[in-house]
Amino acid sequence: MKSNMQLKLICPFEPISTSSAPAGGNWVTQIKWDGVRMLLYYDGHETKLFNRKLNERTNQYPEFQDIRSFCCANSVILDGEVIAFDQSKPSFHEVMRRDSLKQLQRIKQSINQVPVTYMIFDILFYNGEWVTDRPLDYRLQLLESIISPNNNVQIVQNFHDGAALFNLMKQNRMEGVVYKDLSSTYSINGKDGRWKKHKVMNDLFAIVGGVTFRHKVVNSLLLGIYTNEQDLVYIGHAGTGKLTQKDWASITEEVTKRQISQRPFINEPQRSKDAIWVKPELTCKVEYLELTPGGTMRHPSIQAVVDVGKNECTVDQIKGE
Question: What are phi and psi of 159, to 5 degrees?
Answer without folding.
Answer: -120, 150
